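okkk here we go again. third time trying to get the flavin-adenine dinucleotide bound version out, last two times i messed up the smiles copy paste (missing a bracket lol). double checked this time i swear
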Amino acid sequence: MGTKMRKLDVAIVGAGAAGIACGMKLLDKGNHNFMIYEKGRSYEKRYCPVDHGRTCMKCDGICNVISGFGGCIHYGDSVKLSVYPSGKRLYQLLGPDAYYSCLEFALEHFFRNRYLEFQMTEGNKITEMDVKDYGICSLDSGQVKEALRNSFDYLESNQCISLETVVKKIEKQEDGFFLTLQRTSGEETVYAAKVVIATGRDGVTWWKEMTGHLGVKAEPPVISLGFRFEMDKKYLTGIGERHPDLKLRFVKGGRKFKTFCFCAGKKGGKLKGENYGDFTLLDGHILLDKDEESGFANFALLMQLTHDRERMTYSQVVSRYIARYKKLGGYSGMPVFQNYSSFRNREDGSEQNGTSLASARPAAVWKLLEPEEHTMFCEVADEIIRWIMEFNGLHAGQIEEFGKKIYILGMEIESLWDTICLDEAMMTTVDGLYVTGDCAGLAQGIIPAAVSGVYVAEKIV
Ligand SMILES: Cc1cc2nc3c(=O)[nH]c(=O)nc-3n(C[C@H](O)[C@H](O)[C@H](O)COP(=O)(O)OP(=O)(O)OC[C@H]3O[C@@H](n4cnc5c(N)ncnc54)[C@H](O)[C@@H]3O)c2cc1C
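finally!!
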């Protein structure tokens, strides 16, 4: 005799900030007939060899940095939380009242403190360049651990979370959905009246396939590509103290450039690897009072990608930049480095590894860009580096010498998700299918993810 199929009111796919916050709000509303399905491991089992000076081992196809309970919030890292005007498009969709009430819920229930103090940045006090200002607050690794442990305990005690469970496929039914789940023990099909997609970075390819399969209407993304700039933390921590998340903005040749994820806390910053199966991209983390100490700090410089002045599609990025990355130096898409002067002069890039990432390999990193992109990228980078030199009382004319102390590490890609067409409840064009967090393609970051998760839970039942 076959077992009866489980019937849920809501299935949430992914336990990052969006999925967790959505689940917590559903419980708060008294709804217990839902499940969060998360393909990755439990928060305590998210060991990353790169964090311990070793090479990325691909971890059986599930990257512990971007997958597992917490999603891209990795147990043991610190994070920066940014509020509106960061995540403007989400704020505009929700409106101020809903945005702030969902934010309050997320701060109180997920981050355990509704009174977290967000400080408005004042970029114009440190530079005349164009800076984006918004409210920001940092949580050290101890606070992040506590938030993840508490939210996991809450969801688990209500039997609403299933880890190491991949949602392989979603099929639309006349009324609701069938979800095919894959566990080590085998496959199972469940029914859910409504589905919330919260699959973030790890799910970028899967969600792309699902939008096609389910006929979800979407627009191409605005993808950015760039590199991490790593240097001795003494050059960046003074800036980080005055502005913890410096976002400088530039327009060059009709393209937008920005600095991103500035990682220069009291203890510096570290680099993170994110594995996507057959290639590994880079990201960064700030190190605060309670974290380990690093001699380095870093930030990313990203450039929006366009093709014939149009937005570049996901598959164009894969076939051009990711294909090049996978071939560069014969390293199969593993992180590479070059010092900035050598990158700028289009040299071979065979210097010794002076980065914090022991596994990074020397390469002609500049070859990842088109020649005209490389020229524009260096013009913007020069402007930033000269400013960093002046900030540190160095003569900006000596950029060639200073550039040898800066390492360019790659590759980093941001905002790969299509912008999903959503109604005011964040429902897609498929009835009953909702999307939250990064994969909605509206706003990237922990706070937008958590806020949108709470919002969808408010609207869905
Ligand atoms: C290294 C790093 C540092 C960052 N630092 C910051 C920071 O300091 N501040 C900030 O605001 N943002 C930061 N970000 C970005 C931020 O973490 C994300 O924007 C945010 O976590 C998005 O949340 P999410 O819930 O949308 O998705 P994610 O956090 O990406 O979670 C998605 C989850 O879905 C799961 N999943 C995917 N597909 C499936 C499937 N088919 N079945 C089941 N589960 C699936 C994944 O395993 C993952 O756990 C950082 C990102 C990285 C990678």
